[in-house]
What does this fold into?
Amino acid sequence: MTEKTDIKSMNLPELEQWLVSIGEKKFRAKQIYQWMHEKHCSSFDEMSNLSRELREKLKELAELTVLQKELVQVSQIDGTRKYLFALADGNMIESVLMRYHHGNSVCVSSQVGCRMGCRFCASTLDGLVRNLTPAEILEQIYRISADIGERISNVVVMGSGEPLDNYDNLVKFIRLLTDENGLHISQRNVTVSTCGLVPAMRRLADEKLQITLALSLHASSQEKRLELMPVAKSYDLAEVMDACRYYFAQTGRRVTFEYSLVGGVNDSREDAEQLTRLVADMNCHINLIPVNPIKERSYVQSEHRDILNFKNKLEKNRINVTIRREMGRDIDGACGQLRKRFLER
It folds into this structure.
């Protein structure tokens, strides 16, 4: 059996080309593209302005990626919704919907599992299974939007996986997401996180997209970063910071630093001072994250008092800083927790 073509991962010119290659008219591409990316149809049968012959031909030759909703947990605290989706091959991924006064934000996964091994993250405990296709990343947004019947205005690629470890599919996904023929979300409303894959960060800077880059920093020295993040063995903190400066120089977009506060590990006054020195010359924003404890590791969340002291110290040094509002703590809100528990069951 020949492998079917993944048409939802194609942009409009690619889809036109593919249709011509199977003996169809080019203008059909626009109709099919709208069904997939504007109307978010879940089968070829729904494409009512196509002939039955063409729909049958598409079923035979093309794959229409549609995620199946396996489980939804809704936070009783803040209405955050955590989704577990089943992929066509039986793998599971998770996504999160967060409602803010400025609109609906979805956090998507970019891989099944992760191979980065960060010490406080549940996504990485079973390693990397595979990369997601552009269509599988998009589908998380489409299915959530259909589920709540509302538009999604912000997207963060911060779920399971290291986005820059799936570079080509990630960039294709961003271009499809922000394309005027699809959801047309502004690039400025898209944030991509990385644990610091330096060559890919520089390559992303050269794409000159207008997205926000968020670096998972989590430590203000190379020694502490090594303790928390195995990726630090490959890329020294100084190299990573240089790549952040390069990103700003190429795009004009200030970098966000994600800093998970782990009790007794990286939350002292000295850590705050060291962090200030590290970012002093940069146009950046620091997002302090009270770490989500996972049972497989001994890390604990910093005391509330220590979190506030850390923030105040940075503010006194004129650093832009916020404490991330905890969303969905009562529903396994952190990356990888829900999938892991489901697989264990």
